[in-house]
Specification:
heterodimer, A: mainly alpha, Four Helix Bundle (Hemerythrin (Met), subunit A), 7 helices, B: two-stranded antiparallel sheet
Chain lengths: 198, 408
């Protein structure tokens, strides 16, 4: 324990002298994770590697949510996106056997790269502009109430979802159910081939 | 709210206490796994009238240590067709969630070290049990990628099974956890334990046994314990997802599996059996909660060994039927019923009426579900003769064979 003292003191100095420095360090680290993951998704030749890079990106975003005190959002991000959606991606990749690097044909769509780069720049510009002027519709940056105040983040989130935003929430869930039913109907073509549901 | 350790700001002592807790939990898990492997082998031997490990140390208690040392010194093989990076990564993706999810388990009350009060649990994050769900949803990657990256067909089959199984049972598990969260009104494991302060307020009694049973089954399936060990079914898949692994990487999978058993037992105790709560004894008051916790934990560890020795493995279609058609509807219905009763109590409604209405709605839902299931099966039976007229006999029988293969 006596030997651990200086180490702990060093950690402590790093942690407490200036919180903004810690915030910046966390942001920089998670941004690096997010961006390298995103680049990995695009640049990996192997679909499974790309999916794993996507998981890395999602984790970086979850860390950013935690840094913003949005713990619930971070947990949901990991549970839903990393834990369910990417697992299903991988499941499909493995089942279809497209996990060979040579399975990717050359360019299917001629000229898609310049178009993709152009659209990407447009999307980035949109994001930056919207981020700067997102309060034009409501006049507030946050409409669900102050981030501080009594109660945990989760209680506030639950309260606003189940009171003020109940109708949008229910409509969204109805939309998801319709999408699921649609997917089942589309996937179910010939009765005696219906084995995917198991 | 939250651990009182951080109330007065962070100083050297606080950092040291956190480090100490991390080390204690880490060592505890490793020792627990060592003893758990020995316990499992010994108990199963007793149940099968064998002696079991009896050479290394008294009662063979050091057998795991010997096996671990052996695994360390074995050659680490890398299959020719393996995806090298993912193959090396997978064991760590398996062991990490197993370690991390124990962090939220409260193993005692509040103690004070060097003038700082602290909970006897590594962390009490605001998301609480959601952390467990997040970790268990990450745990699937280790199994899945291990099977895929081996570049061999049996591990691949194991990992495809694993991904479907673990995603399927997560929903049932989450709904069972939601019932416990509902009764405590908080996600934090510390608050969930605090809400179960007397025997009849333990969630296993106050929620009815349904969420408890669903959680026990679903957590067993999440951890790939028998009877849900289709992922590594020896008779069908050689060794399942870890067929190609050897040496220390195999040991890591083994460690993760037993650590998951310890962790889910601890979570059952925390969520449904009051965690460290028990009779208060004035002699050494902060010691007894730990004793109660470990006694309860031991009961569940024994139950898991017992299940392994008793139950045959599920077939894949039985596994999916149980998960989707029984556990998820049952836990969803029970969650809604518990919620309705709680609202009724708060609003002062007639509880008998609420209960009757809830059961009536539940019966209606059950009838609709079983009607839908029968209809789905009828589609198969009735419509395939119609299809029979259009296609040749050979194709149909081919379809039948492939369907049976998928089922199996």
């Amino acid at each position: 324990m006596a030997m651990l003292g200086p180490v702990a003191h060093g950690l402590l100095l790093a942690a407490s002298t200036s919180t903004s420095k810690v915030d910046i360090a966390v942001f920089a680290a998670s941004a690096a994770i997010v961006l390298s993951g995103a680049l990995g998704v695009v640049l990996s030749r192997n679909p499974v590697h790309a999916a794993l890079m996507l998981v890395m990106t999602l984790f970086g975003i979850a860390v950013m949510f935690v840094a913003q005190d949005a713990h619930f959002l971070a947990a949901v991000q990991v549970i839903v996106y990393a834990g369910a959606i990417v697992v299903l991606f991988l499941f499909v990749i493995m089942l279809l056997g497209v996990d060979r690097e040579d399975a990717q044909a050359a360019e299917d769509l001629p000229g898609q790269r310049p178009i993709a780069i152009g659209l990407g720049i447009v999307a980035l510009a949109e994001l930056i502009i919207l981020g700067g002027t997102a309060n034009w519709a409501t006049g507030n940056l946050a409409t669900a109430g102050q981030a501080g105040g009594p109660g945990t983040n989760i209680e506030k989130l639950a309260r606003s979802i189940f009171t003020r935003y109940l109708l949008p929430f229910e409509i969204t869930s109805a939309l998801l159910v319709i999408a699921v039913v649609g997917a089942v109907v589309l996937a179910r073509r010939v009765p005696h081939e219906e084995t995917q549901g198991q | 709210m939250g651990d009182p350790l951080f109330v007065d700001g962070i100083d050297t002592a606080v950092v040291l206490i956190v480090l100490l807790k991390v080390i204690v939990v880490f060592v505890f898990l490793l020792v627990a796994v060592m003893l758990m492997v020995w316990f499992e082998r010994k108990v199963i031997s007793d149940m099968q009238s064998r002696i079991g490990p009896n050479r290394a140390g008294p009662w063979g208690i050091l057998q795991t240590l010997a096996d671990g040392t052996k695994l360390f010194f074995k050659e680490d093989l890398l299959p020719e067709l393996a995806d090298r990076r993912v193959f090396r990564l997978a064991p760590f993706l398996s062991i990490l969630p197993a370690f991390a999810s124990f962090a939220i388990v409260p193993i005692g009350g509040t103690i004070s070290i060097a003038g700082h009060k602290t909970f006897l649990q590594l962390a009490d994050p605001p998301i609480g049990v959601l952390f467990l769900l997040a970790m268990s949803s990450i745990a699937v990657y280790g199994v899945m990628l291990a099977g895929w990256s081996s570049g061999s067909k049996y591990p691949l089959l194991g990992s495809v099974r694993a991904s479907a199984q673990m995603v399927s049972y997560e929903a049932a598990m989450a709904l069972a956890v939601a019932a416990a969260v509902l009764s405590a009104g908080s996600l934090s494991t510390h608050d969930i334990v605090a809400a179960q302060d007397s025997l009849f307020r333990w969630n296993i009694f106050s929620l009815g046994v349904v969420p408890f049973v669903v959680f026990l089954i679903a957590a067993t399936a999440e951890a790939n314990r028998p009877p849900f060990d289709l992922v590594e079914a020896e008779q069908e898949l050689v060794g399942g997802f870890h067929t190609e692994y050897s040496s220390i990487r195999f040991a890591l999978f083994f460690l993760a599996e037993f650590m998951n058993t310890v962790t889910i037992s601890a979570m059952v105790v925390t969520l449904f059996l009051g965690g460290p709560n028990g009779p208060a004894i004035s002699f050494l008051p902060s010691l007894w909660p730990i004793v109660w916790f470990f006694l309860k934990l031991l009961v569940f560890l024994f139950i898991y060994v017992w299940l392994r020795a008793t139950l045959p493995r599920f077939r894949y279609d039985q596994l999916m039927d149980l998960g989707w058609k029984k556990l998820i509807p049952a836990s969803l219905f029970w969650l809604l019923l518990v919620a309705a009763l709680r609202i009724g109590r708060l609003e002062g409604w007639n509880l008998g009426f609420v209960l009757g209405g809830g059961v009536a709605v539940g019966a209606l839902g059950w009838w609709a579900l079983s009607a839908a299931l029968t209809l789905g099966q009828m589609d198969d039976a009735d419509l395939s003769p119609a299809a029979l007229g259009e296609v040749s006999l050979g194709e149909v029988s081919l379809g039948e064979v492939s369907r049976e293969d998928v089922n199996r």
